[in-house]
């Protein structure tokens, strides 16, 4: 598989995934896959929610429609891997990660839309970075699957950020920096549960 240039992702994010998270992920691969499936489903739901809320923006509608289709396809792929490996797909409490980011989003428009889109960009960028961080340590099937996701996740990040700038009517570096500060706290801070977007393990595995 051709190497994907992720330098723009690494430059965007405030910190790399801690090695302790990678180690925890390798010890909890069933849980990683289950939560990955939930993340793909939630990503599709977020895109559809934006389509319903902002029906007067053709560019947003087109990009979110494509994104939702891709995320649902990824969801189906993870489900297939779970079934193949005899892993039950069940309920998991969500990570604190996305909730913490959305807690800092503005409530009034257009700030609400701008922040929602920036948060979408941050989540997609982190997902891409984590796929790349863990893929070299996984079995051949999972490594190939996770590497196959890098291109689409990177594009989703770019789409969200481009839409955020369009909604704001200007560059959004200052607001991005503020929300990335929140993101860094979630990634580098101690976490009591393991999830795809959890922080530094403070749990027994």
TrEMBL record:
GO biological process annotation, one example: tRNA modification
InterPro entries: Ferritin-like, Ferritin-like_SF, tRNA-Hydrxlase_MiaE
Xref: Pfam families: MiaE
Top-level taxon in the UniProt lineage: Bacteria
GO molecular function annotation: tRNA 2-(methylsulfanyl)-N(6)-isopentenyladenosine(37) hydroxylase activity
Protein name per UniProt: tRNA-(Ms[2]io[6]A)-hydroxylase
Taxonomic source organism: Halospina denitrificans
